[in-house]
């Protein structure tokens, strides 16, 4: 469920970004940017979002786990443990899901005709 919500969040951010930058997309296409250039632009932005949010999540998760190790706990209660392998697997899985959710907005930006994009009011 968390993975789906994260992917939906990234897709929403990217859809808003594409909507707000329609005029810029039209200008880039008018001066010679290819569909691949526009697609790459938005995918790189999506990867940046994934790295920043994933990195913040990893740091927060590790910090909470370390804090729980120091907190008093009832007898028989095992604190959560996080391994590097689990961290890398979770980050890769989230990254793949988020990158997949960036594809639709990036593709719609790449397919936008320059005349329509320039006609859009700023």
Order of helices and strands: HHHHH
| Main sheet properties | none
- Give the fraction of residues assigned to helices: over 70%
Low-confidence stretches: none
* Strand residues, percent: under 5%
- Number of helical segments with 4 or more residues: 5
What is the average of the pLDDT values? 84
What is the SS-derived class? mainly alpha
Radius of gyration: 20 Å
Distance between the termini: 37 Å
Q: Would you report the number of β strands?
A: 0
- What sort of overall outline do the alpha carbons produce when their principal axes are compared? elongated
Oligomerization state of this entry?
single chain
Number of domains: 1
Question: What do these coordinates show?
Answer:
This protein has 122 residues and is mostly helical. It has one domain (2-119). It is 80% helix and 0% strand. The chain contains 5 helices and no strands. It has helices spanning 2-20, 22-30, 35-70, 84-111, 114-119. Helix 3 packs antiparallel against helix 4 (84-111). It is elongated and about 70 Å long. The model has no long low-confidence stretch (mean pLDDT 84).
